[in-house]
Amino acid sequence: MMSTASILIIDDEKDIRAALRGIFEDEGWQVSEAGSGTEGLEMALDGDFDLIFLDIWMPGLDGMGVLVSCARRGWTPRPS
Amino acid sequence: MDNPSRLIPVKERPAQERRKRQREITLAVIAIFVIVILTWIELRLLGVNSYLFFALFNVNLILLILVLFLVLRNVIKLILDRRRRVLGSGLRARLVLVFVTLSMVPTFIMFILSMWFVQTSVDYWFQSQVETSMDHALEVGQDFYAAAESGLEAKAQGILDHLRERRITWSAKGAEEAIRAKGREYRLTLVGLVTPTLQERSWQAAPVWDEAWRKTKAEVPWADLARQPAYWATLRAHPDSDLVVGILPVDEAASAFLVVGAEVGQGFLERLELIAKGVGEYKQLRSLKFPLKMTLYMVLGLMTLLIFLGATWFGFRLAREISAPVQALAAGTQRIARGDLSVRLMDDSRDELGLLVQSFNSMAEDLEQSRQGLTEANRRLQEQYQALIAKNHYVQAILDNITSGVVSVDRSGRVTTINRAAEAILGLETGSLVGRAALDMLGPEHRGLVQEVRQLLSSSPGSQWQRRLDLDVGGETVKLLVNAVALMDSEGGDSGIVAVFENISELEKMQRLDAWKEVARRIAHEIKNPLTPIKLSAERLERKFGAVVADPVFGQCTGLIVRQVEHLQEMVREFSSFAKMPEVTLVRGKIEPILQEAVSVFAESHTAIRWIVRFEDAPDVMLDREAMGRVFSNILLNAAEVLAGRDDGRVEAVLYSRKRKARVYIEISDNGPGIKPEEQSRMFEPYYSTKRSGTGLGLTIVKSIVSDHHGHIRVKPNEPAGTTFVIELPAARSEA
Predict the structure, then answer these.
(1) CA B335 vs CA B342, B485, B489, B564: distances in Å
(2) Could you say which of B384, B565, B640, B730 has the lowest number of CB atoms within 10 Å?
(3) Which residues in B lie closer than 8 A to residue A26 (C-beta atoms)?
(4) Is A15 in CB contact (< 8 Å) with chain B?
(5) How far is it, in rounded angstroms, from Cα A30 to Cα A22?
(6) Tens digit of pLDDT for each residue in A15-47?
(7) Residue A1 within a domain
């Protein structure tokens, strides 16, 4: 298993992003942050993240909008 | 419009009268004809010589029959009229009775007197003295006649004796002289001899004898006298004097006949003949004494009856004539009494009854005119009334269809108008308030209001009084916004107050609810976000340092933080769901399955409580299944919570309908501790809660949903203990 997983947190609340970052970094994971849906979608499409934390209720492009855009770009549910 | 039955003739019409007269004339002609025929037949068959009497008798009989017929006809008619109670028949009957009585008395007196007179006179006529004196008269006449004849014989014998004494021969000259002398002596107007060859000799005759002797000579039975010589005498009527002739045969009629004649006075013979004839007739008449009497009686009786019946008939006629206008008047009066004012009487007579008829006609005309006027006035009134009614209905319709309550009171404070909305808002029976004093429906704290309004409005006319009022209606506080103005009549006088009010309790609650929704939305938004990092941070602290820090205070604090944050999050979720409560969508459906399902869920999870569901027959309602389920769940949850920890808990849900199935009621009762009266009104306000946990939003949501269903929810104490929630919903309208 990889020692460092990369995680993207998309949330408009800075405090939530900070709290989550702290928790994940405690575990030794690589954490990236996005403050809005638009920024988060851009980063998600550009980077290669193991896990994305996406807040649904956000001003501007919300979580669902982000998911819809990802699905349009060919993202499929990961087989479990 | 000429009604033929409008005119009542007082007398028979001229045409009728003419026909009647013609009929009477015909009847009279027939009667005369019958009289002639009857008289002729009687004469032929009976041959009695008193024709006149029979003619009279027949006339009387025919007339009697005729009058009897007329009277009988009238009597029968009158009796029939009386039976049928024809107008005027009573008067006629009385008049006829008077006439009959008046005519009967004198007629009968006359009849009896006549009877007596006939009796006595007839008896008198045929008395025996009359008969014997008539016989005597005749005898006297005959005696005189005999005496004259025998006297003449004596004289003739005397002449003959004289001649024989003197022995004078018949042929001698002295014979003639002697005869003449003797004739003069005996005052004979005729004396002479007739030879057997019927030659007069020694003839001495007065001129009266010229004609008389010739006739007598022809009558004398000369041959008989020649065969049987005897004295023969005869009487001879003569215009100047009656003559007696005597013939005495001389010498057995061998030599001559001595003829003597004398005058016996004028008309004697004629009178004697008349007496004889009278006696004969009298004798004949005496044999008819009884029939004569009887016929006289009969004629008398007939005459009496004729007079009597004639009077009766005349009485009928007169009575009819007198009673006709009275009858017409009575008939006219009756018709007027029945409402037929067009009736007029036809009469052109100028007497007092005619005046009465004219007065009647003018009265009927006046009545008719005034009735026409009345009818016209009534019609106009009716029209105005109809217009007024229509206007009134229009105003009433407006009043009844506006949602604001309208109440008007008069000067004395009595309610004159109240519309449907007002009755509904005030929870009153329809029409129960009109006429009552408005103060009666107000609580004691509002008693002064009417006076206050009155004062304000009278001090500044044209102003408006506005006030918010809280009224207690059937245990529920109703908030009203009241506007009142003074009513002015056309003269500017005070005619009361009209108050318009609206129930603003619902509006107020809605406004408060909206405010609370806004609050909830803000809280959800502002509080929810910081909570997550707080919780995450507390958990991170616990996770990172829980094993390192030996002091248990650390672990207790982080745990407390996490739990409290979780509680806060729960609250926020509730706020959020309240704020984002969706609009209900009403669909026709049944309450029963929703209530049953809600109760079933609780029955499974709360087995310590007895759950009872009862359904009465209830109509469909318009509902949102999900929202209504939430209503029941919230109320049932409330009940389950107050009964927690008890083993005699009991919750009963009942469904029923009232008001002829126009309203559906759901009652959910528990036997918990109940609620205090002051809590009742606040129970449905947001954030009011008697529980330590909970947001107090549950019943607010319930109330909101029930309102969206156009229903009401209220709470009342359950008997003997506990609380009852009553949800009232309108039934769905029957499908068209």
Answers:
(1) 9, 59, 49, 105
(2) B384
(3) 540, 543-544
(4) yes
(5) 11
(6) 889 989 998 998 889 999 999 999 999 999 888
(7) no
Q: Are strands A6-10 and A51-54 parallel, antiparallel or unpaired?
A: parallel
Reduce the DSSP state of residue B675 to 3 states and report it.
Answer: coil
Q: What tokens does B113 get?
A: 């007197």
Which tens digits make up the pLDDT trace of B256-311? 888 888 887 777 777 777 887 888 887 777 777 777 777 777 777 777 777 777 77
Q: Could you please report the per-residue DSSP string of B172-231? A: SHHHHHHHHHHHHHHT-SEEEEE-TT--EEEEEE-TTHHHHHHHHHHHS-HHHHHHS---
Q: Between B668 and B192, whose confidence is greater?
A: B668
Q: How far is CA B414 from the centre of its chain?
A: 47
In this prediction, residue B385 carries a pLDDT of 94
Interatomic CA distance for residues B460 and B458, integer angstroms: 5
pLDDT for res B3: 41
ipTM: 0.81
Put simply, the answer to whether B536 touches A13 (Cβ < 8 Å) is: no
In this structure, what CATH number is given to the domain that contains residue A19?
3.40.50.2300
Comparing CA positions, the residue from B317, B268, B246 lying closest to residue B77 is B317
Query: Per the omega criterion (within 30 degrees of 0), is the bond before B717 cis?
Result: no
Q: Tokens representing B360?
A: 């009647």
Among B729, B705, B725, smallest CA distance to B652 is for B725
pLDDT, tens digit, 9 for 90 and up, residues B552-572: 888 889 999 998 898 888 778
Residue at B67: amino acid letter = V
Domain for residue A77, yes or no?
no
Determine contact, residues B609/B650, Cβ cutoff 8 Å: yes
Residue A26 touches chain B, beta carbons under 8 Å: yes
Q: Output the CA torsion sign for B699, B701, B704, B708.
A: negative
Average confidence (pLDDT) over B95-116: 84
Maximum mean pLDDT: which of B324-338, B381-395, B682-696: B381-395
Does the structure show a pLDDT above 90 at B335? no
Check if the beta carbon of residue B115 is closer than 8 Å to that of residue B300. yes
Q: Reduce the DSSP state of residue A74 to 3 states and report it.
A: coil
Residue A29, domain member (yes or no): yes
Q: What total of structural domains would you count in chain A?
A: 1
Judge whether B630 and B701 are in contact, CB under 8 Å.
Answer: yes
Angle between helix B128-165 and helix B268-287 axes, rounded to 10 deg = 150
Judge whether B573 and B532 are in contact, CB under 8 Å: no
Q: Under a CB-based contact definition with an 8 Å cutoff, are residues B735 and B619 in contact?
A: no
Interface contact B537, partner A, CB < 8 A: yes
Which candidate from B529, B530, B536 shows the least CB-CB separation from A20? B536
Residue A1 in tokens: 């298993």
Q: Is B601 exposed, middle or buried (0-12, 13-18, 19+ CB in 10 A)?
A: middle
Please say whether the beta carbons of B183 and B198 come within 8 A.
Answer: no
Range of the domain at A16: 6-72
Asked if A22 and B533 come within 8 Å (Cβ–Cβ), the reply is no
**Domain membership flag for residue A54:** yes
Tell if the CB–CB gap between B530 and A15 is shorter than 8 Å: yes
Q: Determine the residue of chain A that is closest to B537 in CA distance.
A: A19
H or E element: which one contains B503? strand B494-503
Name the β-bridge partners of B658. Answer: B663
Among B533, B543, B544, the residue with its CB nearest the CB of A19 is B533
- Rounded CA gap, B696 and B574, in Å? 10
End-to-end CA distance of chain A: 17
pLDDT at A7 over 60: yes
Encode burial over A8-24: b for 16+ CB neighbours within 10 A, e otherwise: bbbbbbeebbbbbbbbb
Please report which confidence band the pLDDT of residue B473 belongs to, taking 50, 70 and 90 as the band edges: confident
The whole-angstrom separation of Cα B37 and Cα B464 is 116
Classify burial at B490, counting beta carbons within 10 Å of its beta carbon; exposed 0-12, middle 13-18, buried 19 or more: exposed
